[in-house]
Amino acid sequence: MLRPFLRSSLGNATRFLGTEASAISEEDAGAPRNLKRIGRALETYLRHSRENASMMARERADFDLGKRHLANMMGIDPHTINQNDIDKAIEYLFPSSLFDKKARPVMRPPDEILPRFNRFTFDDEGRPSDSRFYTLRPKFYALLSEIGLKTYNVSRLHAEHVKLNRKDDVNDQTVSLTGTTWINEEKMKKKLGENITTEMYAHLFLAFDYLVSLPGSVVESEFISQFREPLTSATASRIFGPEIPKVEICSKTNRRTATASVRVKSTNATVTVSDAGTGQWDIDGLTMHNFRSLLAREVLLCPLIVANLIGQVDVKATTVGAGGATAVPRAVRHGTALGLAALFPDVEEKLRLAGLISWDPRDKERNKVNQPGARAKWIWKRR
Amino acid sequence: METLGIACRRLAFTTKASGRRISTQKALATRYDPRVFRDPIIKLDELNKKLAPEDEKNFLYIKAMESDDTPVFYRNEVVDKLVRVCMKDGGKETSRNNIFSALEIIKRRQYKLWREAPTEEEKAKIETNPFKVAEKGIKNCHPLMKLMPVTRGGTTYRVPFPIEEKEAEFRAMKMMRDICRGKAKHSKILHFGDYIANELLAAYNNEGQTIQAKQELHKQCEANRAYAHYRG
Amino acid sequence: MRRVFTSPAFPSHRSLFLSRQKATTSASNTLQQHQQSTSSIPAPSIHRDIKVPSISALEKASTQSTSLKPYVSEELQADDYFNLESLVNVKEMFDARLHLGHKIGTLNDNMKWALYGERLGICIFDLDVTKKFIVRALNFVAHVAARGGIILFVTTNRESMLNVEKTAKELGEYSHCRRWQEGTLTNSAQLVGATIRLPDTIIFLSTLTSLNEPHPAIIEAAKLTIPTVGVVDSNTDPAYLTYLIPANDDTPQSAEYLLRLFKEAITRGKAYRKKQQQLEF
């Protein structure tokens, strides 16, 4: 076991000060005490490493077998079953009402779930393979040094450009960062393969921000983009709430319509917007005339004002669990906006920027124990 | 329902004593995660302009538009705010009716003045648009500083602090509202809207109780100028 | 300054994977078997004709270490085995600004021996003294490299940091130019997660941290009896360093010059080692 770690070439008789038995030791006096101890530690490490490898192999085999059983159970083709199918199947077979998604049962390849075993890379002389090994965070510091080097190169290049009076050169611009954001700490840890603290992460992005701010940094845009992710990944789609519905053609009247289901507080509304209309309103059988409040009328008309389509569409809405003075108009407004965006795609962006296509997430806050309401407290007495 | 973008996270656990779930979530100031939400554009002319390609609004969520931000032609920010400030128990309708009746009174009075003005010059000087009158009136009531209690060594001093425009506007409206509520309580003939109209018109001309109150405040601030070094 | 013997007769208990172990690979098994038949001790591959001191000789040596000179291997008998003195010359050192120290007011009393004098308030190093010490240090480093030792370059100078890392990588050696984690050497097992081979020598291109305190690695190395080479400036304390190089450590030009020298020394040591390894097979 020690063999790979012992140097073959400089083999020599080992003499140790203080060995009483004899200054001349035999071949098999054994490795000296220290070596033995270290050898044992190494042996342990090697044993753990091999055990881990065999364990992972077993787990992977188990997972593959389990996948096939699951496919059999659920009636899916075992050859084309993917992780999505597995997740759905597990959710069906083991329904859980635990709030924390991470606490629910999960079935994933063992590489994703089981803790990684730290394998060191040394050569047969025990020399680490990474030249920054003794910093204890070689990959992190390697990245930091790389940024430093690139910063130096970029500023040197820019100085050259200035000297040769080529300031308007394409290569002398600052890198464009629109639509992207720096990757977060978790992703950075995964990318580096090392555990970094928040402070180290902050240092890293201080360095990056400086590089990015330099004129001429566009030269290194490829390198920088490796650490940037699109903003849209934070928001899966640009619309918060129900998506824009599909346009259907009403068979009777041959008009284009779009139907959206929306919710505001406890009011659920289904709104149908029809093209080629005269500005008719039918909200649970009521017309605009029945909404006496100016505010309610403003709210209902809002999407048509923004899209400039007053009197050109008909709106029909039905509500369930109708709420207060503004709840129904707000719900119908949301539905109308979605319908308009479906029927007239060029006004979609305007409606979105006006905030009419977003779902309003504000709900009544729950009441808390020992309090009369959500926030109100009992009268406080000093004694 | 979608929980994307909502800033609060729920962590539920059961206690051993009872079987009930206790939420450990903190009450947050907003249901919109500030990292992924931006304010909507509520002015029609800005909406009609195309958005710059590198603007972050292209990639982020937009908050829902408020109920009283509909871009109608008679939209006035200051008057809307006054409506909200004078609102009681969420009764926006009542408040709006009061304020708009006040604006109507202002219009009538100003129109009368305008009609009775002798020359064209003087006619031009009279502002008949009640929204403009209200705006100007509130603006005249903006205090420049506020007094905050600061305790040093057992004694509580009232120290003058500078304030932002938004806060100054609110304080002006609040002063006016409190004055008018006080007056309306004791009167059986005139109502809140009438008093608001009087105050707004008076403030427009730099007169009236609200303006007086503002000047009092300024005098107090001036008097307590010595404590300004407690501001830190 | 004490000379540290790194001959196989005196293995250090902290460098555990090095040359002082018996050959047990299959490649040299046949050789071993042959040697076994002749003596009970396997003959060394590189260090032929090694004489092993008896217990009484060792006891005497505890007071008179020079008495063990005959037992020391032949390369270590020479002062400048790798002929590194030819690399160093005073004019080049002067051009690389090695002679510039800090202000007189910051002079450390223990560095007075290295100064030529003071000019315009700035301490000037005696480059002849520096040359002597450089050659000694270079030879030591070359011998370490010849025995496959791990060499760790340490610096806190931000300007020369990237250069040091680059040089260390080119040589196949190691560098640490960042914030020193306390216990990196003394507590390595816990910090890394397993026992690792520690550096056999540490070369400090600057001994002070950014807070003008002595670098923690100096003490750690001393605790583990790892010999150190240190470039000491006029304001630094030379304590606990094995091989000193009294010279300027702040300017990038001086760091560049010293790196070049170390690079050459290590390259020579490694070439020697490779030759020896080839001779065996």
Automatic annotation (TrEMBL), chain A:
PANTHER family in alphabetical order: RIBOSOMAL PROTEIN S9 (PTHR21569), SMALL RIBOSOMAL SUBUNIT PROTEIN US9M (PTHR21569:SF1)
Gene Ontology, cellular component aspect: mitochondrial small ribosomal subunit
Membership in a protein family: Belongs to the universal ribosomal protein uS9 family.
Gene3D superfamilies tied to this protein: 3.30.230.10
Listed name of the protein: 28S ribosomal protein S9, mitochondrial
Keywords associated with the record: Ribonucleoprotein, Ribosomal protein
GO MF entry, a single one: structural constituent of ribosome
GO biological process: translation
TrEMBL record, chain B:
Xref: SUPFAM superfamilies: Ribosomal protein S7
Ribosomal protein listed as a keyword: yes
Gene Ontology CC annotations of this record: ribonucleoprotein complex; ribosome
Residue ranges crossing the lipid bilayer per the database entry: none
Domain Small ribosomal subunit protein uS7: 71-225
Entry keyword set: Mitochondrion, Ribonucleoprotein, Ribosomal protein, Transit peptide
Pfam families: Ribosomal_S7
Listed CDD domains: uS7_Mitochondria_Mammalian
A single GO BP: translation
Annotated family: Belongs to the universal ribosomal protein uS7 family.
Record text on subunit structure and interactions: Component of the mitochondrial ribosome small subunit (28S) which comprises a 12S rRNA and about 30 distinct proteins.
Protein name, entry field: Small ribosomal subunit protein uS7m
Organism: Mesorhabditis belari
Lineage, broadest ranks: Eukaryota, Metazoa, Ecdysozoa, Nematoda, Chromadorea
TrEMBL record, chain C:
Top-level taxon in the UniProt lineage: Eukaryota
Organism: Mesorhabditis belari
One MF term in the entry's GO annotations: structural constituent of ribosome
GO cellular-component term (any): mitochondrial inner membrane
Chief localization: mitochondrion
GO-annotated biological processes: translation
Subcellular location, record wording: Mitochondrion
Record keywords, A-Z: Mitochondrion, Ribonucleoprotein, Ribosomal protein
Family: Belongs to the universal ribosomal protein uS2 family.
Function field: Required for mitoribosome formation and stability, and mitochondrial translation.
Coiled-coil annotated spans: none
Name of the protein this chain belongs to: Small ribosomal subunit protein uS2m
InterPro entries registered for this protein in UniProt: Ribosomal_uS2, Ribosomal_uS2_bac/mit/plastid, Ribosomal_uS2_CS, Ribosomal_uS2_flav_dom_sf
